[in-house]
Amino acid sequence: MVYLATVAAVEDLGTDETGPAISMMRASLVIERMLRSDAPPPPPINATVRYRRLARAEHGLSGQLFYKLSAGDRVVVFAPSYEPSYPIEMIAGSAKTVATTVSALRAYLGGMDEMTQRLHGVTPAVRTKQTALYDRILAELGSAPAR
Q1: What fold, for 1-93?
Q2: pTM
Q3: What is the Cα 125 distance to its own chain's centre?
């Protein structure tokens, strides 16, 4: 499922077993729009996600594996369910930041050559469906997709 939400609150659950560089976090979200779901309606109004935050720079740890959320941030959540768990992926930040990231993903998808599409399992149907999802996210954020 994919939904657009606003971060209501963030809670630091402490460091994980790998050491003080990684904080285990939990965020309470207010779901604004369900964008894709296999779950029966109606969707919940609130959701909780768990995530990891890089507390301090650590050699060998990529910042791409971690998130930094703050109350008021907008977030697109790709999740397996509504259960409080780790999402598959999140795009978070201000509405402008999220829109910029989604626009870049849309442009990358649109610019994939045939070999890259095959490598990533992007069929014409998947490409059409994903482009429509990105367009819907951009519309919800008030940003027109780049054509």
Answers
A1: OB fold (Dihydrolipoamide Acetyltransferase, E2P) (2.40.50)
A2: 0.83
A3: 22
